[in-house]
Design brief:
The complex is a heterodimer of chains A (282) and B (130). Chain A is α/β, with parallel strands linked by helices and 282 residues long. Chain A is built from eleven helices and eight strands. With 130 residues, chain B is an alpha+beta fold. In chain B, β2 and β3 form a beta hairpin. Classes of the chains: A alpha/beta (282), B alpha+beta (130). At the A-B interface, α5 of A face α4, α5 and α6 of B.
Chain lengths: 282, 130
């Protein structure tokens, strides 16, 4: 018998904004729920290394779900006539539906990129129901680094283009194998899904007016960004932390936009101390 | 710096295959020196150094020599590891028909990375790429 990884995958149907959505999620570990949110156009496999790290799973129940339209989650019936565009409201509703549906008590929510953006709104609106939020490559407002017209270009739905677009966001020091696995996720995306996520990321997620309202004594905020990230720059992360009293910004050396998947070994050296702090106050 | 570019691309079947849909030309400007790169179905058919007289190209990437030097380091500093990073931070200019660039983005990025020195290789002046 081969050695089995500790990750278990399940399906569940969640009501999101009044409609049922069948979603796929994976989990491993026991303890405080740690809900992980994948990047735009990708899926929950980005967190597979975290789920196989006993230093995490000994005290955290790590869960990661594929957003509707992503990974093995099913798009809602009628998808064939819909142009997918993620909104801030739907994103928050999906995350809360997952938390409520699995009856997770005061989970820590950790998201990357668009997931690192939405945790800011979660902390603003749902902070008292959460243990903490961790924004990876996160900030509280869009900062486009290519022209909006690009998203209308026919090549934007092409996997090879998506990979070309994000490939430079990985740090040069990240191991080839994990870097290319991170990029493979962008080949796997459904046509138009990455583009649809950009609606949220580029035009529907400016939280700067309210990010200062976060009560970090109820819901601590940690913002962790790789020094090679030019999508969410370290400067944008530090500026966001500056708008949130009590938030902590951590800049990670030799890491890019996909810390948990492009260089799991480097990432854990930054994440474990943050998890220690969170565990100490729970 | 780009003398061996054509040979290195054309002898790499995976790279030629990746660029199989590209038949176009682009300009790499290294400081005051312009290099016109012609591509035919993924093969580099010419790398010509200027000055040019009204030579056409589809898109151009322009940066000072010191920027390209950083870009071609084995482990470039943050902000210099990718043309989009360099563009965002004002280190390089990307102009022209970006549709052609977008349609062949991964191929073009891989071609531009060819002169990048390998880790532990000698400095540029002794590496044979200069």
């Amino acid at each position: 018998m081969v050695e089995l990884e500790p990750i278990i995958g399940r399906y569940a149907t969640l009501p999101i904004e009044g409609r049922d959505h069948r979603i796929y999620f994976e989990e491993a570990g026991q303890g405080t729920p740690l809900v992980c949110l994948h990047t735009a156009g990708a899926h929950a496999s980005q967190f597979r290394h975290l789920m196989c790290d006993p230093a995490v799973t000994d005290r955290f129940r790590v869960l990661a779900f594929d957003m509707p339209w992503h990974g093995k989650s099913t798009p809602p019936p009628g998808w064939q006539d819909v142009e997918y565009a993620l909104t801030s409201d739907f994103y928050v509703a999906a995350i809360m539906a997952f938390i409520e549906g699995l009856e997770l008590d005061r989970p820590v929510v950790m998201g990357c990129s668009m997931g690192g953006r939405v945790v800011i709104r979660l902390a603003i609106e749902q902070g008292r129901r959460l243990g903490a939020v961790i924004g990876l490559e996160g900030s509280d407002r869009p900062a486009p680094w290519y022209h909006n017209s690009w998203t209308e270009h026919p090549d934007f739905v092409n996997g090879d283009f998506c990979v070309g677009l994000v490939s430079g966001l990985c740090a040069p020091q990240s191991p080839d194998e994990t870097r290319w696995e991170s990029l493979w996720h962008y080949y796997q995306g459904g046509t138009g899904v990455f583009k649809g996520d950009m609606h949220f990321f580029r035009t529907d997620s400016d939280y700067t007016a309210r990010s200062g309202d976060i009560d970090t004594s109820a819901c601590p905020v940690y913002l962790m960004t790789g020094e090679y990230d030019y999508s969410c720059t370290p400067e944008a992360t530090i500026a966001t932390a500056g708008r949130i009293p009590g938030a902590e910004a951590i800049i990670m050396k030799e890491v890019g936009h996909f810390p948990m998947s492009e260089n799991p070994a480097a990432f854990r050296t930054y994440l474990l101390p943050v998890l220690d702090k969170i565990a100490a106050r729970l | 710096m780009l003398e061996t570019l054509a040979d290195q691309v054309n002898s790499n079947p995976a790279l030629v295959r990746r660029g199989g849909a590209m038949s176009a030309s682009f300009l790499i400007e290294i400081g005051a020196r312009g290099f016109h790169v012609s591509v035919d179905r993924g093969r580099i058919t010419g790398v010509e150094e200027g000055p040019f007289i009204m030579r056409g190209w589809n898109f151009a990437i322009r940066a000072p020599e010191a920027v390209w030097e950083k870009f071609w380091e084995p482990f470039p500093d943050p902000g210099f590891q990718d043309i989009f990073a360099m563009n965002r931070f004002g280190h390089c200019v990307v102009e022209g028909d970006v549709d052609v660039l977008m349609a062949n983005l991964r191929y073009v990025k891989d071609v531009l990375a060819i002169p990048r020195r390998k880790p532990n290789s000698a400095p540029k002046s002794e590496s044979g790429h200069g």
